[in-house]
Amino acid sequence: MEMVAGRIEALVRSGDLRSGSRLPPEPKLAAMLHVSRGSLREALKGLVFLGLVRARPGDGTYIQPSLSGVISRHFQWMLLLQEIKYLELLELRQILEPAAAALAARRATKDDIEKMQEALAGMRSGFHNPERFMVNEIAFHECILQAAKNVAIQTTMRMMYDAMAEGRRRVLPLVDDLKRNFDRHERIFNFIQKRDAQGARQEILEDLRYAEALLRRDLDAQDKFRKEAEHTPKQLKQARVTRRGKPRR
Question: Which site from 74, 79, 123, 231 is most exposed, i.e. has the minimal number of CB atoms within 10 Å?
Answer without folding.
Answer: 231
